[in-house]
Write a structure and sequence with these properties.
alpha+beta
Length: 192
């Protein structure tokens, strides 16, 4: 590969990782302001595979092949950074379910917003949302954020590494396609 092609490949990969992190952190914080912050990086993330058209010398297949792992990465960005943060810095807690409000998701199902209480009866800070309906008084094992950035999360969800494995596989596929696009970008396009 020529030096300029290597630089374009490296720039695309670095930009993809940076966008993934920005989308993940902003999406994990979850307020409307952070969703606005995440909107432009999300659009850039979806558009990133289209840069492979120029890297590959005008071939379209790398764009379409890379689009699938890019969409998977976009989805995992909304789970992995927040879960990693909570796993490393969160505090396990036993919570009791209090009041719940239901927001209809448009399909007749609820997204419940719960108030959780600690063992002393104090409200745990942050929002705990789930599609599962928990009865008032139910006990849940959660992880709380001592800094208050994130709402409580189920401990089982935080411990699970399924999304991390999916992220690594998607990044590996994306990397392979980007490198392949760079390699074929050195060859001239032949007409059939």
């Amino acid at each position: 590969m020529k030096g300029s092609t290597w630089r374009r490949v490296a720039a695309l990969l670095i930009a993809t990782v940076a966008l993934w992190l920005v989308v993940g952190v902003a999406g994990s914080l979850g307020t409307w302001l952070w969703w606005l912050v995440a909107a432009a990086p999300m659009a850039a993330f979806v558009a990133a595979p289209f840069a492979l058209y120029w890297i590959s010398g005008g071939r379209t297949w790398p764009t379409w092949v890379a689009f699938v792992p890019a969409l998977v990465l976009l989805m995992t960005a909304l789970a992995v950074p927040g879960d990693f943060y909570m796993r490393e810095l969160g505090t396990p807690a036993a919570a009791t379910v209090g009041e719940a409000t239901c927001t209809d998701n448009g399909e007749g199902r609820c997204l419940y917003n719960y108030t959780l209480y600690d063992g002393a009866g104090r409200v745990l800070p942050g929002e705990f949302r789930d599609t599962v309906e928990y009865a008032a008084g139910s006990r849940l094992d959660v992880v709380t954020d001592p800094r208050g950035y994130f709402g409580p999360r189920l401990a089982a969800d935080v411990r699970s590494r399924v999304f991390e494995v999916i992220t690594l596989i998607a990044f590996a596929l994306y990397l392979l396609v980007v490198v392949a696009a760079g390699l074929i970008g050195r060859r001239p396009v032949t007409s059939s």
